[in-house]
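Propose amino acids for all 146 sites.
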């Protein structure tokens, strides 16, 4: 009877030790996100291009994007909101500024109507941001096209 309890105890200890070792090995040898390329999800964006990272305007744009946009948008793929990497090809900087900073502005062009139908939400407004800050965010997003 006591032998069965000791054997059960040893099996539990063995499972615990192997589990801990497995976790430690995983932590030691897991690939970092940069080894797998840029990881883009939600508000976590890692940038590969050192030239962009050293630019202070790029850093400002990254901060604006991550703090205000990344919870709904991904530069390269649709998320809660549409992908934004090609926004410069169909929207002017003035339009972007008006759209994001004027709480009462609701565009009624075909593209905006289709996006409202597709996503069922309207984009949050950011009246506290300046057009210059939004321009920096667009420049940050724009580098993902390349």
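Proposal:
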């Amino acid at each position: 009877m006591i032998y069965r309890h000791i054997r059960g105890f040893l099996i539990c200890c063995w499972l615990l030790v192997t589990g801990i070792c497995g976790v430690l090995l995983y932590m030691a040898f897991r690939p970092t996100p940069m080894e797998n390329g840029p990881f883009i999800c939600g508000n976590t964006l890692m940038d590969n291009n050192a030239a962009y990272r050293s630019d202070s305007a790029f850093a400002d744009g990254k901060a604006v994007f991550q703090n205000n946009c990344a919870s709904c948008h991904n530069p390269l793929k649709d998320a809660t909101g549409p992908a934004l990497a090609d926004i410069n090809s169909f929207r002017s900087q003035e339009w972007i500024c008006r759209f994001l900073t004027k709480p009462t502005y609701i565009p009624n062009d075909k593209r905006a109507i289709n996006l409202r139908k597709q996503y069922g939400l309207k984009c949050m407004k950011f009246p506290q941001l300046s057009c210059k800050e939004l321009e920096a965010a667009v420049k940050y997003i724009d580098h993902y096209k390349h």
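Residues 33-48 have pLDDT under 50 and may be disordered. Residues 2-30 form one domain.
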